Amino acid sequence: MSIPQISEFTIRRHANAKSFQQGEAYYEAGAVNAVAQRGDLLQADVAGSQATPDHVNVSFDRSGFSVSCTCDYDLEGWCKHVVATMLVCARNSENIQQRPTLEQLLNRLDYIQTQRLLQELVTEYLPLIDTIERHVNWMTNPDDKQTTTKFMRRSTIDPIPFRGQVRQILRDTVRYFEEGYEEAPIADKLLSVVQTAVDFSERGQGENAIAILEAITSTCVENWDDVAEYGAENDQIVGQLNNAWCEAILTAELTPEEKVDIQINLEAWQDEWNADFGIVMEVLRQGWDYPPLVQVLQGNITERGAWEEDVPDYADDLALIRLKILERQERYQEYLYLAEAEGQTQQYLTMLGRLGRVEEAIEGT
Fold first, then answer.
1. In this structure, are residues 16 and 75 in contact, taking their beta carbons and an 8 Å threshold?
2. Do 19 and 48 meet the contact criterion of CB atoms below 8 Å apart?
3. Alpha helix (H) ranges present in 34-159?
4. Distance separating alpha carbons of residues 280 and 242, to the nearest angstrom
5. Minimal CA–CA distance to 223: which of 212, 213, 234?
6. For the chain, N or C: smaller number of CB within 10 Å?
7. How many CA atoms lie within 13 A of 279 on its CB side?
8. How far apart (Å, rounded) are the C-alpha atoms in residues 15 and 316?
9. Per-position DSSP letters for 178-242, written without gaps between them
């Protein structure tokens, strides 16, 4: 698959002025190394101020690009490393190495060679056997296979690069600690990967967001012991994953079978990782059809707000996620009903002001 044409105007549109300037400087300094294309995935290492290069992944199809980077950039638009990589595509695409895809590589091997390859990989990286076991169980269980296949047909994103990105972050974290650093930027780097999923949700692509979050969560669970030995805690990343999962689920249109499949995975992950995905479980249960929520969105507001039982501690977090989605979908009156019912006064007044209903906003202050 050839790389879609990309102009410098497009690159500028996706990055702020500072990131573009820094990325262009990186490009001109020859900091973009090992640029390779494997099918619809472009990968590059970009040398910068850190001891190790940052790794950029660019997935592309006819609808556009999806980018990620291992750096801790958390501002608007593409980071300087992505900009530098995309400038290679725009200015020097002939220098991009064409490498075989995984499918093409495996097609070169017969059955015995494929088995030998897996055995050698497991010998080199022992935790891989747990991943293989889980996937073998899924592939050989007809019910699980049917559910997974149904969901993956509606997801257009390849989760493999995100698994690799998370694994690399965890490896880098171990190296940081082994080199004597007391802290490592593990949380910031993982949160930047989670933000990629959030970006898909914000574009209305909840199924793709879920595919990415499955890759992030499962890879963290499988490899967390490596960093836990050095005292790394998962509280911050679990909190962000909870929010991202909720937004993705409420954005996607999931079948009951898909919801059950996600719930089973989350229950297993939280047990293995000592994490709490309770808010996500509740979102899977409620969706948008939860009777008290439906009543609120119709303007029938009671003292309990959008809850039929005791209000949980995460009620405010869930309300803000729902409000974000309602605003994105331009369901402004329902936004106001929910904000009022859940006591989100600032959001309620701000929306009234945006809608030009200033007198109502003044009366509410």
1. yes
2. no
3. 80-91, 102-107, 111-124, 128-140, 142-153
4. 6
5. 234
6. C
7. 25
8. 32
9. HTT-S--THHHHHHHHHHHHHHHHHTT-HHHHHHHHHHHHHHHHHHHHHHHTTT---HHHHHHHH
Gap between the terminal Cα atoms of the chain:
58
Q: What are phi and psi of 177, to 5 degrees?
A: -65, -40
Residue 194 has, within 13 A of its CA and on its CB side, a CA count of 22
pLDDT tens digits, one per residue of 149-200: 344 445 677 888 888 889 888 888 888 888 777 676 788 889 989 999 999 9
pLDDT in tens, 250-307: 999 898 888 999 999 999 999 999 999 999 999 999 999 999 999 999 999 988 889 9
Residue 174 CA to its chain's centroid (Å):
22
SS3 state at 96: coil
Rounded to the nearest 5°, which phi and psi values hold at 46? -120, 115
Cα dihedral sign for 87, 93, 94, 98?
positive
d(CA 41, CA 165): 13
Is 54:46 a contact under the CB 8 Å cutoff? yes
Tracing tokens 């049917």 back to the chain, one arrives at 146
Residue the block writes with tokens 């109502």: 360
231: exposed, middle or buried (Cβ count in 10 Å: 0-12, 13-18, 19+):
exposed
C-alpha distances out from residue 237 to 28, 199, 206, 242, Å: 35, 17, 20, 9
Considering only CA atoms, give the Rg of the chain.
23
- Coil, helix or strand at residue 66: strand
Task: Check: CB of residue 105 under 8 Å from CB of residue 45.
Answer: no
CB atoms within 10 A of CB 205: 22
CA distances for 102 relative to 107, 108, 152, 162, angstroms? 9, 10, 18, 15
Sign of CA dihedral 48, 52, 53, 55: negative
